[in-house]
Specification:
alpha/beta; Hypothetical Protein Ychn, Chain: A; 5-stranded parallel beta sheet; 4 helices; about 20% strand; 5 strands
Length: about 120
């Protein structure tokens, strides 16, 4: 991805309880990475559980994709995974509870990302 790539942010609030809704933003995010965009995935609410290393295997596969595979492609392709700190605190999660690629992020830092994005989609 180039330094001048347009940024798109996917905000998801769906976690393991809703596999299809949790998976869809990752499908789109990976498509954005394939288009050489700067792609950010922001996990909020129950979606923060998706950043836990042991959780992804428990999310059932949808008809076409495995969330585990999509997450691997996402981070290997340069996607950035931001995790809401207040949402983590609400669930008693710490940074050490998350996968290595997940970045705990404050509301103000996410707002800065949003202000610099070309598009924001929420799921």
């Amino acid at each position: 991805m180039s330094e001048t790539a347009e940024k798109i942010i996917y905000v998801t609030t769906n976690g393991p309880e809703s596999p299809e809704k949790a998976t869809l933003p990752f499908k789109l995010a990976n498509a954005g990475l394939a288009l050489d965009l700067d792609v950010v995935m922001a996990l909020q609410g129950p979606a923060v559980y998706l950043a836990m290393p042991g959780m992804i295997p428990h999310v059932p596969d949808t008809n076409t994709s495995s969330l585990k595979q999509m997450l691997e492609v996402f981070v290997e392709s340069g996607g950035r995974l931001l995790v809401c700190i207040p949402c983590m605190e609400e669930r008693n999660l710490k940074a050490t509870d998350l996968i290595e690629q997940a970045v705990p992020t404050s509301g103000s830092a996410l707002t800065e990302e949003i202000l610099s994005a070309k598009a924001i989609l929420t799921y």
